[in-house]
Specification:
By secondary structure, the protein is mainly beta. It folds into two domains: 91 residues, OB fold (Dihydrolipoamide Acetyltransferase, E2P), CATH 2.40.50; 33 residues, no CATH class. Helices cover 0% and strands 43% of the residues. The chain has a five-stranded mixed barrel.
């Protein structure tokens, strides 16, 4: 199955690493939709070493794997049971950049390479005297 969300915690043990993740619905590309409501927590178990400097808190992640059962987590003073996912593939999403900008030549349009809705200013713009 494919699941995704935001990293809460990373714990490295002797032979595997455990990631605690808050689950969010995925979009068509598999990226977590963090603007929507969270759907609870799950834990990912990976046989590889997951460096806490790379897998940092609040980073978006998508995991493909197999549900192998459940595990107990302590959240505050409460013990909860969450699904345990054995990872076969892990993808960290790059940080989104905002391409919406205001330009006096092109207006407040999103920038797409090769797409300029209005050719104001510059070589293609109107000539002012």
């Amino acid at each position: 199955m494919r699941w995704g969300g935001v990293i809460i915690d990373v714990e490295n043990e002797a032979h595997d690493s455990m990631l605690q993740i808050v689950s969010y619905p995925l979009d068509y590309t598999g990226r977590p939709q963090i603007h929507r409501a969270g759907e609870g927590r799950f834990v990912v178990k990976s046989p590889e070493f997951l460096d806490p400097a790379v897998y940092i808190k609040d980073k978006e992640i998508t995991i493909a794997g197999v549900i192998t059962g459940d595990t107990e987590l302590t959240v505050g003073k409460r013990v909860i049971r969450v699904p345990l996912l054995s990872a076969t593939a892990i993808y960290l999403w790059p940080k989104l950049t905002n391409y919406n900008y205001y330009s006096p030549y092109y207006g407040p349009y999103p920038y797409y390479p090769g797409y300029y809705p209005l050719y104001r200013g510059g070589f293609y713009g109107p000539f002012f005297r």
